[in-house]
Structures are given as C-alpha cells and as structure tokens.
C-alpha cells in the first residue's frame, strides 16, 4: 500500500500549483497533469480494492478516510477551474468511490462542505495570492 503515498502526494500538490500558477496556458498544463494523476489514482484504486467498494475492500478503511477528506477540495478546484477531475469515462471506479465516500453515513458530516472550503480558499488567496504573471 505504501506505493500509493507518493502518487497521492504528487497529485494533491498539483492543486496548490494550479492555485498559484498565473495565466491560462500555465493553468491548462497543470489541469492536464491533474487529469493524468486522476487516471493513476483510478488504476491504484482498481488494484488495491480488488473489485470491492473501497480501497481496503468491502468496508471504509484508513486510506478511504484520508483520501476522502480531500474530496471537498476537488469540487472547489473543478468549479473554480472549469474541469472535471473524476468522470465516468476516465475514472469510473474512482467516481463511484467518491460518491460512496461523500454519502457514507460515518463520513458525510465530517468531510468539509463546499461553503466552508470556499471561505478558507478565499482567505488563503487574500494572504497568499498567486504568482505574478
């Protein structure tokens, strides 16, 4: 399972890179990397889930909870940057997983909502703006 950690670190670091990158061309290049990364996460999910519902199998496990905490951010970045990180064609299993995690009884109330994350994002933008073009 340790091989997923570097993939996740690289994938989620791209969100900050997207936030601070100026200009449409630079942002498009980062979005492409995020989309490619989501494909790698899809492959990883398929490998580790062994056809089951969650990364660890039939039940929510540690990795599901940790990665699930980032799902709110994926929605924010999709909205702000007008693209889909997970979709039915490229990442069908991961998209199903995201929907299960977001609606899971034990997790749905602890995953930060879009409004709270957007407020935090706007605060970060105010105090740590993107790079100058």
Explain how this protein is built.
By secondary structure, the protein is mainly alpha-helical. It has helices spanning 4-20, 24-49, 62-68, 71-81, 92-103, 114-127. Helix 1 (4-20) packs antiparallel against helix 2. The mean pLDDT is 89.
User: Rough shape?
Assistant: globular
Structural class: mainly alpha
Helical region count? 6
Distance between the termini: 39 Å
Query: What ranges have pLDDT less than 50 throughout 5 or more consecutive residues?
Result: none
Features:
133 residues, mainly alpha
Task: Sum this structure up briefly.
By secondary structure, the protein is mainly alpha-helical. It is built from 6 helices and no strands. The radius of gyration is 15 Å and the shape is globular.
Task: Please write out the topology.
Layout: H1 4-20, H2 24-49, H3 62-68, H4 71-81, H5 92-103, H6 114-127
Helix pairs in contact: 1-2
